[in-house]
Structures are given as structure tokens and as C-alpha cells.
Amino acid sequence: MRRRAVVLVAVLAAGCGEAPAASEAPPVERETATVERTDLVDRESLSGTLGYADPGVLGAGVAGTLTALRAPGTVVTRGHSLYAVDGAPAAFLLYGALPTWRDLQPGMTDGEDVRQLERNLRALGYDPGTVDDDWDWETTAAVKAFQADRGLETDGTLTRGEVVFRAGATRMGEAKADVGDAVGGGRPLAELSATDREVVVKLDARRQQLARRGDEVTVELPTGETAKGRISSVGTVASRASEDADATVDVTIALRGRGEALDQAPVDVGFAVERSRDALAVPVKALLARQGGGYALELPDGRKVPVEPGLYADDMVEVTGDGLREGMKVVTAR
């Protein structure tokens, strides 16, 4: 039985001729990257708090019963009221840097606050005549028209409780009083802020050199997204949260865009520690360790180019070496 099987195998082999050569495996595609010329920035991440710029507190300018208060998160624009007392709207928002320190009325002395009021009247569509420091009959007419459109007494006078000046559109924050409360005498009604987002970092006072006004930073938001910001101010007076705590200064960062809707949310801020401008760089995974020390980059044809690594930042590394140029393709590890 065994012999017959051997013969059969031999016949089959003879009939088939030479066994076909094994097919070659297809070449493995290797990942490559391009040598880039870019600016690298190594950053140190510190904790910060995301909030709104220009915080303040709205105080009651008139006495009576609080009958309406804008909800937290509401954005109020020029010409609209912030709250109501005894059923009458109060604290109409106008834009400007000067606070309302006196009643605005006919016969008042010249001042920058008159110019500020007239600028707002014109922006709202009321003609105060020439916008200047002088209150004249045209100013009175414009104020009366403003009052008539808002159901106010058209006496041509705006008292300190009737208007509030802030830098721009204002966001209502946490309420400090409830509808139905008796208010007056400057009682806090609500927190206020601008609509611009900002981040505050409590920076160790010994490390002030890390933050310079105008420097760009990165901000990792609670969503996981990264936004860009710029340092708008660095505090000059150090403070301590407690007797045992290290002294810190406030670093304020203006955030580009509106960012998250959350207020007082924790964020991570990346401060620049070291920079390399106009550097040739490749992904870190393109570096190839050489026997005996040092590094090289491998070209797609298998050749090796010795390089000296420099600054590491954001999964990239600065490289220098003879024969290295922008645009070259190099092999990277998978």
C-alpha cells in the first residue's frame, strides 16, 4: 500500500512539472513625513479659570420694590434697561468709560460726560446736534425723545438711576437680589461683565518672568478644544490665598472668540518657556537612534542622514544636519 502511494505521488509530480516559485510579498508601504520650516514653542501648562472680562456689580440706583431683573446669561445692549423698580424700567445701558457721577440735565456745566451721552444718543438715532461737551437745547430734545420711546417722564433729565455707562454690551451674571425685594441705596442686584471671555491664572510671584504682556498662550478648554489667547495684563501686587500659601500675581488672558459658555470653568494655559524660530522640524517619531549614539533621519530610498535634535515641542523636533533641507521626505515609525 505504501509503495503504491509513493508511485502515485511521483506520477503526480511528473505530470505537474516544476513546482511554481513562491510569489514575492508586496512591498510594505512606509509612512513618511515632510521636513518643515516652522516656529517651535515649548510650553509649560498651568491651571487657570475661564470667566468674563470687566466684572462688576450692578447696584440699585432707585428705591422701591424690585419688579424685574434680567436673567443670568442675558446680554443687554445699548439703550435697554437692566432691571425695573415699582414696575418702571431703570438703569438703561449706555456705552462709555465714565461712570454716571452726576445727573445729566439742562443747564449742567460742560464736561466729558455730556459728550459721552450725546455720542450714545446719536448712536441710538436721536440727534443731539454737534457732539461736544456742551449741553444745549438740541441735547434736551434728544433726551426727551429717548425718554418718550421708553415710557419715562419726558423732563429732559437723566438721573443717576436711569442710566448706567459701561464699556459695551453687558452680560448679566449671578443675581444678588430677588424680585419682590425692597431695594435702594446702591444695594447689589446682580453681577455684571462684558461678553468677552478671559482667563485668570494665579501665577507664583517668583515666576513672573514666565508671563509678559502681549505674549501668546494656548488655552485648553473644558471641551478638549484648544484656543489661542494673549496676555492682556500681569499683576504687580502679590497676594496670598492663606497664610501658608505662596504669593501669587494675577495673569489675565484675553481669549480669542467667545469660547465656552461655561463660567468659572477650570482650564489649562500653556505659557511659552522656550522658542525656536524658522527651524527645520520633523515629527519626533521620524528620529532614528544610531548605533554608537546620535540620531539620523531615514530617506525613502534607505539612506540615512545624521542630524542633531534641538527643541522638542508639540510632537515635533527641531533638526539640523548636512544635506537636510525643507520639503524632504523622511520615513516615520508607525
TrEMBL record:
GO molecular function: efflux transmembrane transporter activity
Coiled coil: none
Gene3D superfamilies: 2.40.420.20, PGBD-like superfamily/PGBD
Ranges where the Peptidoglycan binding-like domain occurs: 111-159
GO cellular component, one term: efflux pump complex
Signal sequence segment: 1-21
InterPro entries documented for this protein: Peptidoglycan-bd-like, PGBD-like_sf, PGBDSf
Domain of life: Bacteria
Keywords: Signal
Name recorded for this polypeptide: Multidrug efflux pump subunit AcrA (Membrane-fusion protein)
